[in-house]
Design goal:
11 helices, alpha+beta
Length: about 400
Amino acid sequence: MKKEKGKAIAFALALLCLGGGVKAIRGNVNMQYTAQAEQVASLETGAKVNLGISAKAAYLMDYATGTPMFSHNEKAHLPIASMCKIMTLILSFDAIKDGVLDMNEEITVSERAASMGGSQVFLEANAKYKVRELIKSVVVCSANDSCVALAERVAGSETAFVDRMNERAKGLGANDTLFANCTGLPKDPQYSCAYDVALMMQELLNNEEYYEFGKVWLDKFNHPEGRFTEITNTNKLVRFYDGCDGGKTGFTNQAGFCLAATAKRENMRVISVVIGGENSKKRFDDVRTTFDYAFANYTTQTVVVGGEPIEQTVNVSGGKEKCVKVYPARNAYAFTKRGEKSNITLETRFNSVKAPVSAGEEVGEILVFKDGVEMDRVPLLAQENVEKANFFDCLRDVAQGWNAR
């Protein structure tokens, strides 16, 4: 009788196991990492540093965290000329990621695209060009004809593409931007600001393929039947500034000389934007000055390494396995000022996780704090699949627990 009673209890517990059991508590906090790091110096409007920038507007920020280091008229509405092409490139890379466009696809160039003036690679109307080459020409030599060819392929017309540009800008928080075309050629109303251009440049830099083209100095753009156009990077800093591997220039009589550029040294990548420079030399000098200031005064530390499993595991209810290893979805950084100390701490928080679990499924997060202030949240992903336990799995677990008594 006692033996039969034990079997009944085991059977009931197995059913409870299949029903999910006791869920893990959301918000379970594990302090797993503490490090001394230099203090973040965010922009202090009451004590701005004077870098002697001559442009009408400027903005300097850390790429990884978006922390500003310097600003000057950063929200002023100004024409930005060919820096509009940053958004054209973003949408082109979006289309590639979405499977709408392929790097090796050939685009037939329209009469309209081939007729664009200004900076161009002299595309032939009705000829076919690979997407890769068109993107390269936009990045390297600011080709207006390639921009329109890409826009027409992605959205059907430049007008429809411009609508997408404006929508994408708003999604990035670039609320002081209005595009009228995909090239930046003069057309009213059309404007942006240094802050918004920095946000757009930050988004563009999330595309690893961009760097393949951004650091090109000299190249040949090939046309059908053997003709080619020599192209030179309009961003001179990719050759003359250590660490600069991307950027976008712009010039019209209305906008003046503009530049958005990025440079990386060690773990820190920065973005600098200047609008309305007096001449080409001064725009490069202004950006070089901001880069020098950033690398001399700030640093970036990696505090979470994406893809590497952490020590903690997350409990899984109702699964063949009782827990699963987890890893951060991406890196997290602490942007800090040299010479000043602060406390960087991490917290892990796990969700209530119930089987089945798929590898790559989000099961928690790591919170990054600097001096007690939250700076970032990184998703934690399951490293492997966990199948749902069946009745016999649960019965076995109950039996093992019973025998261990």
